[in-house]
Amino acid sequence: MQVLSAGAARTVAGSRSSHSSHSSHSSHSSYSSHSSHSSHSSRSSHSSMSWLLSLALVGACARDSPASGRPDVLAAAAIEPDAQVGVTPGVTRRAAPGLCLAAPVASSEALRCWVEWLASPALAGRAPGSPGGIAARAGIEATFRDLSLAPAGEDGGYAQALPRGANLLARVPGGDPERAAQIVVIAAHYDHLGVRDGRVYPGADDNASGVAVLLELSRRLAAAPPARSVLIAAFDAEEPPAYLGEAMGSIHWMAHPTVPRAQVVAMLAMDLMGGNLWPGARTPLYIMGRETIAATGEPASATGEVGLARRMMHLRLVEELPGARQPFSDHGAFFAAQIPVLLFSTGRSPHYHRVSDRPDTLDFEKLEGALALVEAHLRWLADLPERPGWQNPQPVRAADATVIVDLLQAASAADGSPEFSGLARPIVRADLARMRALSAGAQDRPLTEAMAQDLIAVSLRAQCLLMPDDEIPTAACLMTP
Predict the structure, then answer these.
(1) Cα separation of 345 and 59, whole Å?
(2) For 440, which DSSP code?
(3) How far apart are CA 367 and CA 161, in angstroms?
(4) How crowded is residue 433: how many other Cβ atoms within 10 Å of its Cβ?
(5) Is the pLDDT reported for residue 295 higher than 60?
């Protein structure tokens, strides 16, 4: 999962040498043609935040690797001992697909097993085309086979070759003959950053957590198919340098679909599913994109059993950057084609794109709750009596302001994020007061465009503040041009 262009990054960083390792890749591919409200001339001084480097809820560093060195290489002899993937005490070091399938379906035990396998030293960060990436591919393919899922790749198999790496695709036929030809896509990317300068980036949250949910959902769907068919997609090459280019797994699939694109009625993507926005908290699961779906009703809530809060958020609050709208994960290519999308994420944790992104940093009870919520939304879309449609217009509403109010209140509390104290406190308080005013009244009330722009700016500022100071200092998030 990624964020801003390096051009925006440079605006923040200026000549700061501490951030000079973030390279460009500023092309926005075909997505920029779908940007909405890219002109920000109506924004107040609170809204003109072109200096922001990154978003925290669904995001990242500037679009490149944490290290500025050579391409991904699996060089086991060069891996530093302190970069090895940690294994949570009390859990077997022999995590492997067969053992994960032996665990109870959709359990935290099974989810932990998948994450520990994917983030293990043997897979060395799962860079596309590397031995670790190929080993991850083999294990996912074997799992699809063990579950008797129908191949949906190329040449009668599960794989779709990419310039570097391979997508893995399986199909669960729908149970209703009248709706089975319609397809809901559920996806998570399985690649990560691999080995950089001799250090393993294990990618437990990014995105072994999403793949763990995908594989447990596969078990659930195989046992109880919904009315519509489901395409299970483990995309490769989401991370840089493929990000937003033709070699990105989801973009390649949309250009070369392995099922008729006209049959795809909705797409759900999962990225960063098991972390928390700051230490010591259980922050919500964010579900973004509901505004793209023209459909009746809502999915059943599964939050009560696991104590996991969910927050429905408009994609504009995390994707509308100065000058263009930019998607941050595999849903982007589907959004660009006006296919309804949902993006699920618990947000960028402090371990994002670091060697510390290990299994023992994840909240597996939270991940189990996230799985239940994703399944509820998937089955809602796959069982709707009517075909889901593309919603237009897609107004920002008072409910979106309520989400940001909740975030600001939690982050600025005594047990919240330290990034929201000190220098940031007075500005955060002012932002919170304005957002409370916007959130007042009926939650389905559409906001004016000026209100929406102010809300987007506050959302971006909050997400910037959630980034560690060694990536963006607090003062940079508080600046105005």
Answers:
(1) 10
(2) -
(3) 30
(4) 11
(5) yes
Q: Burial, 481: exposed, middle or buried (Cβ in 10 Å; 0-12, 13-18, 19+)?
A: exposed
Domains of the chain (ranges; CATH) run 76-390 (3.40.630.10)
End-to-end CA distance of the chain: 27
pLDDT of 148 > 60? The answer is yes
pLDDT band at 480 (very low <50, low <70, confident <90, very high): low
Q: Which helix (H) or strand (E) holds 195?
A: strand 194-196
Handedness of CA 368, 369, 374, 380 (dihedral sign): positive
Measured CA to CA, the distance from residue 380 to residue 300 in angstroms comes to 8
Other C-beta atoms lying within 10 Å of the C-beta of residue 103? 17
Q: What is the pTM of this model?
A: 0.85
- Is 80 exceeded by the pLDDT of residue 263? yes
Answer positive or negative: Cα dihedral of 334, 336, 338, 343. positive
The confidence band for 307, taking pLDDT boundaries of 50, 70 and 90, is confident
Cβ neighbors of 389 (< 8 A, separation 6 or more) are 293, 294, 295, 340
The mean pLDDT value of the chain amounts to 83
For 21-64, write each residue's pLDDT tens digit. 333 333 333 333 333 333 333 333 333 333 343 344 434 333 34
Selection from 113, 109, 118, 60 nearest residue 85 by Cα: 118
